[in-house]
Design a protein that fits this description.
It is built from 17 helices and 21 strands. By secondary structure, it is of the alpha/beta class. The protein has 2 domains: 2-138 and 326-479, nicotinate phosphoribosyltransferase (Alpha-Beta Barrel); 145-320, Aldolase class I (TIM Barrel), CATH 3.20.20.70. Strands 13-12-1-5-3-19-20 form a 7-stranded antiparallel sheet. A 6-stranded parallel sheet has the order 7-6-11-10-9-8. It has a 4-stranded mixed sheet with strand order 18-14-15-21. Helix 2 (53-61) runs antiparallel to helix 6 and helix 6 (125-148) crosses helix 7 (165-177). 43% of the residues are buried. 1-O-pyrophosphono-5-O-phosphono-alpha-D-ribofuranose (PRP) is lined by residues 157-158, 160-161, 201-203, 264, 292-295, 314-318. Belongs to the NAPRTase family.
Length: 480
């Protein structure tokens, strides 16, 4: 759903002081190129999942300054009247490209590129970073968790522990893109069609005189959708037996099979194994067991390795906050400017730390796939106008350890970035979120298992074309 929220003022104060400064110095219209990229995947993972593009598009579409915004800025006493007039009639004029949502992305590649008048291209930094950093973080976490669940259903249960309401709603959306089957978050269903569902709370069970009566009442109202929360008193002595009793006494006469039970405390592996035996013995081998309680990818993997009999997981706090590593460190850096003749002048930011040196120029990222297996071979960053001819062998080489090289043949190559805005006009239709989720799943399948594993994954190659490598090295030489 398109949001009409005006988030124009959600920016860092220095974006305004710089914008006013460029404007005052007559540099505001100088065309500049910025890339958003990140340096490492959270949790030491091998890939991240791009998310948040739809909300970024909404942000750009709604960019404008209200009278109150202008008054507030005037009140700060540090912006020129000419600049405030410019803001009053502000029209977004940038070109924007991004890697589509659901795509596996890797450190160092441009995941969003903005080109336009410096005064504008600089200004949008904060919202680009916060929008993409947040959803990419959660989609990446969801991808890890759902992979650990090995095909079992994972529902996102985190709204109540999310960091604010945007964290809950956009977190639910991102978790769905990353692989969750649904969410408990109702507004995410209403607004983004993320399937919402759930079970029952302990308070429901406590409200009745007995656990049996609580389950019975629920079954009478929702016979087709019964997942009994069995741990309020005692899972094996009371919860599971009461679930079976209600299945026999209330649902069986209606010809309806109960859906399952949920375990939310105690030793989940042990309890699930015992509960499975009891349900099977009672003739309910089709009843599913759901587990919840501060789970994450490590606990999911651990539980399954203990032989836990779990069919689905409800995962909240550690997913919605990406608790183990709650920052996706995407940054936004100037990579080029244009001179008066319209020629692109690449720019670099140097650092003692080789990994922190930026990759200059207006670029494209290409992904190479093996024609035979469909597996991703690596990505190559090129100058924007470079063309890769699939008929010709292509040499991939490591941009720092240049002796590491490989010639690839029989490949298919795809540009990763798509254009979102052309001179301020939106030229991109955001795909429906379930399509994005399927695309994400399919694209992750193109990665080798070595890249997908949790611990010490193989580093995926993000190389440079020879032309780009030369540009970067020439700039590095020049600043020595
Ligand atoms: N078999 C297991 N192996 C590893 N971790 C488990 C196992 N069973 C449960 N856990 C995890 O251990 C953590 C703590 O569970 P613990 O049983 O101590 O607390 P609890 O069940 O929440 O307690 P309470 O009964 O007060 O709700 C949770 O994150 C839970 O998911
Ligand atoms: O542990 P999480 O991964 O965040 O999963 C969500 C948790 O939220 C609920 O507990 P809560 O105690 O808030 O409510 P309840 O009374 O319904 O259990 C639910 O029972 C889960 O334990
Ligand atoms: O539906 C559930 O079981 C649920 C929803 C939110 C949080 N915990 C559990």
């Amino acid at each position: 759903m398109m949001s009409n929220k005006n988030l124009t003022m959600l920016t860092d104060f220095y974006e305004f002081t710089m914008a006013n400064g460029y404007f005052e110095k007559g540099m505001g219209n100088r065309r500049a190129y910025f890339d958003m990229f990140f340096r490492r995947v959270p949790d030491g993972g091998g890939y991240a999942v791009m998310a948040g593009v739809e909300q970024l598009v909404d942000y750009f579409k709604n960019l404008h300054f209200t009278e109150e915004d202008i008054e507030y800025l005037r009140g700060r006493g540090c912006f020129s009247e000419a600049f405030l007039d410019y803001l009053k009639d502000f029209k977004f004029e940038c070109d924007v490209w991004a890697i589509p949502e659901g795509t596996p992305i890797f450190p160092g590649e441009p995941i969003v590129t903005v080109a336009g008048p410096m005064v504008q291209a600089q200004f949008v930094e904060t919202m680009i970073l916060l929008t993409i950093n947040h959803q990419t973080l959660i989609a990446t976490k969801a991808s890890r968790i759902t992979r650990a669940a090995q095909g079992r259903t994972v529902l996102e249960f985190g709204s109540r522990r999310a960091q604010g309401y945007d964290g809950a709603v956009y977190g639910a959306r991102a978790a769905y893109i990353g692989g969750c089957q649904g969410t408990a978050c109702v507004i995410a269903d209403r607004d983004f069609r993320i399937p919402a569902g759930g079970t029952m709370a302990h308070s429901w069970v406590q409200m009745f005189d007995s656990e049996y009566e609580a389950f019975k009442a629920y079954a009478e109202i929702y016979p087709d959708n019964c997942v009994f929360l069995v741990d309020t008193y005692n899972v094996l002595k009371s919860g599971v037996p009461n679930a079976i009793r209600v299945a026999n006494e209330v649902l069986a006469p209606m010809g309806i099979r109960p859906k399952g039970i949920r375990l939310d405390s105690g030793d989940i592996a042990y309890l699930s194994i015992k509960a499975r035996e009891m349900l099977d013995e009672a003739g309910y081998s089709d009843m599913q067991i759901m587990a919840s309680n501060s789970l994450d990818e490590y606990l999911v993997r651990d539980l399954l390795s203990q032989g836990a009999q779990i069919d689905s997981f409800g995962i909240g706090e550690r997913l919605i906050t990406s608790k183990s590593e709650p920052v996706f460190g995407g940054v936004y850096k100037l990579v080029a400017v244009e001179d008066e003749k319209g020629e692109i002048i690449p720019k670099i930011k140097v650092s003692e730390n080789v990994e922190k040196i930026t990759t200059p120029h207006f670029k494209q990222a290409y992904r190479f796939f093996d024609k035979l297996t469909g597996k991703a071979l690596g990505d190559v960053l090129t100058l924007r106008d470079e063309v890769i001819n699939e008929e010709q062998p292509y040499m991939l080489f490591h941009p720092i350890h240049t002796w590491k090289k490989k010639i690839v043949t029989d490949y298919v190559v795809k540009p990763l970035q798509v254009q979102l805005f052309d001179k301020g006009e939106c030229v991109y239709e955001c795909p429906p979120v379930e399509e994005v989720r399927q695309y994400c799943h399919d694209q992750i399948e193109t990665l080798w298992e070595q890249t997908r594993r949790f611990e010490n994954p193989q580093t995926y190659y993000v190389d440079y074309s020879t032309k780009l490598w030369r540009v970067k090295n020439a700039l590095l030489e020049a600043v020595q």
